[in-house]
Design goal:
The chain is an alpha/beta fold and 382 residues long. It has helices at residues 18-31, 49-55, 68-78, 99-106, 116-119, 128-146, 162-168, 177-187, 212-225, 228-252, 264-293, 301-309, 312-339, 347-377; strands at residues 3-11, 36-42, 59-62, 81-86, 111-115, 158-161, 192-196, 255-257, 260-262. A hairpin with a 2-residue loop joins strand 8 (255-257) and strand 9. It is elongated.
Length: 382
């Protein structure tokens, strides 16, 4: 029989609440005449959770690889339904109220997210730090980085079609699996919507598996790594533009701000800021190529244009132009020194030539090396 819906619950020692969750899910399927199944993705429980699930005729899938993401991937892979709804087995979500998810999936949405902030968070259901800092901040970063309108990135109750899940190509193994699902859906152009979801206090007496700071960092790290623009590109523009503007002004003459004179010593730092910005830019390009060529990010039209605009030959030409310009400035500085019969120089005047000379030589070499490495990473593409 073709099943329409699989309700997947990751499980690691959930004997206290597993039975009520399974019964609610089965009641929902029966009440709404949905051909479906309940799948328990067991991640090595030692409290008898497997026996409870089997007694209630739920399908138990043993997943040996530890981690929230691994458990869900194992359960989803084994699911036989056209649609999948996943949710924690701690009784914090009401599995008897899933009709709104099914209706959205039937309407053609690829991913249906629950939103606990719209549905309501019962007293004691979410720790203070999670409610007012962790979830809002990480969800805001996710919306900003990936141009998404999802208000609750970490709601554990969500539904998706099995076909959409295959397109996501999810890789993470821990709690950041929740963020990856949204990010990959957005990057692959899948349709996403949200529905209000009520979060209840879970029914367990033991501490939750979620670790506030370590799992929060894993989510933030994932969002940064999957957004090279915010991690590398935008900081690159900021550093390069600010460094070039300030360096140009300081090369012409000292700057006086609030009675403080900024001269060639400051020029060293502003030149370094440009170098730092260029390194950010290099890492953006290299990360982008590596991520796309290894299937971590989808290939876009902009990516193909990147290779049309940047190639080894152009990079070598630009790099050598900067390098030889630095050599020219160095020679000019040397000739100035020679004109004084190699006597003591005035450091302030000399450094206005020498600092740009050293800067352009370094920048030229970096461009040359970057061009070679960029082309090597792109070999797989051709």
């Amino acid at each position: 029989m073709n099943l329409e819906l699989s309700i997947v619950m990751p499980c690691l020692n959930e004997a206290e609440t597993l039975e009520i969750c399974i019964k609610k899910a089965q009641s929902f399927l029966e009440k709404n005449h949905i051909e479906g199944e309940v799948v328990i993705a067991d991640n090595g429980s030692t409290d008898g959770s497997q026996a409870i699930a089997q007694r209630l005729n739920a399908r138990v899938v043993a997943v040996s690889e530890k981690g929230y993401g691994n458990a869900l991937k194992g359960g989803i892979k084994a699911a036989q339904g056209k649609y999948v709804i996943m949710g924690d087995a701690d009784d914090s979500y009401d599995f008897s109220a899933l009709l709104v998810f099914v209706e959205k999936l039937r309407a053609g949405y690829d991913l249906v997210m629950g939103n606990r902030f719209k549905g309501g968070i019962k007293k004691g259901a979410m720790p203070f730090l999670h409610k007012y800092l962790g979830n809002p901040v990480l969800s805001f970063i996710g919306r900003l980085f990936f141009n998404s309108n999802i208000g609750d990135f970490h709601c554990g109750l969500r539904g998706f079609s099995k076909a959409a899940y295959e397109k996501m190509q999810l890789n993470t193994t821990g709690m950041e699996f929740a963020s990856e699902m949204i990010v990959k859906s957005k990057l692959n152009g899948l349709s996403i919507t949200e529905v209000p979801t009520i979060l209840h206090p879970d029914g367990r007496t033991r501490p939750p598996h979620l670790h506030t700071w370590s799992d929060g960092w894993r989510h933030l790290r994932f969002l940064l790594l999957y957004s090279p623009r915010w991690l590398f590109l935008y900081p690159a523009f900021f550093c390069i533009i600010l460094g070039i503007v300030l360096s140009s002004l300081l090369i012409i003459k000292p700057l006086t701000i609030g009675g403080v004179v900024f001269d060639v010593h400051t020029l060293l730092y502003t030149s370094g800021l440009v170098i730092i910005g260029f390194q950010f830019l290099m890492f953006y390009g290299l990360t982008k190529v590596f991520a796309v060529e290894n299937g971590l990010l989808p290939k876009s039209k902009r990516y193909n244009k990147l290779f049309q605009f940047l190639n080894l030959e152009k990079g070598l030409i630009i790099g050598f132009l900067f390098f030889f310009f630095g050599i020219y400035l160095s020679i000019d500085g040397f000739l100035t020194w020679k004109a004084t019969n190699f006597s003591d120089l005035k450091p302030v005047e000399t450094l206005r030539t020498i600092v740009p000379a050293v800067f352009t030589i370094m920048l030229g070499f970096q461009i040359i090396l970057f061009s070679f490495f960029f082309s090597i990473l792109g070999l797989k593409r051709t």
